[in-house]
Write a structure and sequence with these properties.
Nucleotidyltransferase, domain 5, 5-stranded mixed beta sheet, alpha/beta, globular, 17% strand, 224 residues
């Protein structure tokens, strides 16, 4: 039986906003379960541990912003961790899609739900040949936002008869962390294109064109 796993993460929230620069992103990471990744996962975990990190999972945004448990680590240590995750993604047999909604076009919960619903619906239509080639589809989401969880459940259930939903924890699934990573960098790509990178983001990615040539280019090769 051919089985497809879809790991989902989001950036943004459903609250009302007056910020015309805000976006809501949803990233979908697709993994054909017949393509084994356990070796690459083990190599990543070994590399992280050998570098002195004692963390449950690689959480991209806080690493870049030096938040929470990452506050006591230097920029080089945190950059090293980000590069370990990037190398894992490059080697991993995964594909991805990111949906981005401009919040100036969806300022409240109702408008955002409508825009997201249409975008998720279109994503499934655009990739139906690939998705329908599998006998079973399992969707992993941590249900961090109940509104998004409800949308995903409703739309996927309409389009895919053989779909199963699992409430997953970031700590237990490296590919959920991959979805978080890609979602974070797709937001950085938007901000860079609009000239809105923060001072901290510019300091973190201090090498000329590092974001574009290393990160964005690598992620682009994984698009479905």
């Amino acid at each position: 039986m051919k089985e497809l796993s879809i790991f989902i993460d989001e950036s943004g929230d459903f609250g009302e906003t007056q910020d015309s620069n805000a976006y809501y992103l949803v990233t979908f990471v697709f993994h054909n379960q017949s393509n084994e990744i356990s070796f690459d996962v083990s190599k990543l975990e070994e590399s992280v541990k050998n570098s002195g990190w004692n963390i449950e999972y690689v959480h991209t945004g806080p690493i870049i912003r030096r938040e929470g448990i990452f506050a006591n680590y230097s920029i080089d240590e945190r950059r090293g961790l980000i590069y370990k995750m990037l190398n894992f993604i490059v080697k991993c047999p995964i594909k991805c899609v990111t949906i981005a909604i401009k919040r100036k076009e969806a300022r409240n919960k109702v408008q955002l739900s409508g825009k997201l619903g249409k975008a998720i619906n279109q994503m499934l239509i655009d990739n139906q040949e690939y998705i329908y080639s599998f006998d079973k589809v399992i969707v992993y989401y941590d249900n961090g936002q109940s509104e998004l969880g409800a949308l995903l459940n409703a739309i996927f259930s309409i389009y895919i008869s053989n779909v199963e939903f699992r409430n997953a924890e970031q700590q237990k699934y490296r590919l959920l962390q991959v979805a978080d990573f890609i979602c974070s960098f797709d937001l950085l790509k938007i901000k860079r294109e609009e000239g809105r990178l923060s001072k901290g983001e510019k300091q973190f990615f201090y090498k000329p064109n590092e974001l574009k040539k290393t990160f964005f280019k690598s992620i682009e090769k994984k698009r479905l």
